[in-house]
Amino acid sequence: MEPIIPENIDSKFRYVLLAARRAEQLMRGARPRVETGARKPTVVAMREVSRGAVQWGYGPAPQDSVEEAPEPAETA
């Protein structure tokens, strides 16, 4: 059975990352966000991600920063 990836997830890679992180949370004691007959944390996490119960975002955009080169030390 191939997982159904929601529209808000842009790739299979991101789907796997989200499911893996959520599975870790479930293994550490988090409560499932969807009702399912599955007991394995990985399966529960995949179903949560597929049903859109896991929120995620790209985070803040990187800031453009220009680093100045250090001035050479003077020799006497």
Description:
This protein is an all-alpha fold and 76 residues long. The radius of gyration is 21 Å and the shape is elongated. The model has no long low-confidence stretch (mean pLDDT 86). It is built from two helices and no strands.
Write the layout of secondary structure elements.
Blueprint: H1 12-27, H2 41-50
Compact summary:
This protein has 76 residues and is mostly helical.
Oligomeric nature of the chains: single chain
The whole-angstrom Rg is: 21 Å
Mean pLDDT: 86
What structural class should be given to the helix and strand makeup? Answer: mainly alpha
Largest sheet, if any?
A: none
Helix content: 25-40%
Number of strands: 0
Q: What is the strand content?
A: under 5%
User: Which of globular, elongated, flat, extended, rod-shaped describes the shape?
Assistant: elongated
- Could you list the spans in which at least 5 consecutive residues all have pLDDT below 50? none
The rounded distance between the terminal residues' Cα atoms is: 74 Å
Give the topology string: H per helix, E per strand.
HH
Number of helices: 2
